[in-house]
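Much of what follows relies on a compact textual record of a protein's fold. A complete example follows; check for yourself that the lines match position by position.
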Amino acid sequence: MTNAAGTRVLVSWGGTMFEYLMPRLLLRTPPGTLLDASERGAVERQIQYGRQRHVPWGISESAF
């Protein structure tokens, strides 16, 4: 999938921080890889969403 900035990213089931950042706990993420771009894109988008809605960013399952 391609995000709004035109960067290719992986799609997660629910779009939560947990889903995007959990692999980093177990796998090395070399710079410039699809996994690296997805992790960075997820964090950037979460920050944008928080700023747009004036809410904290970092949405996860624990928020529900």
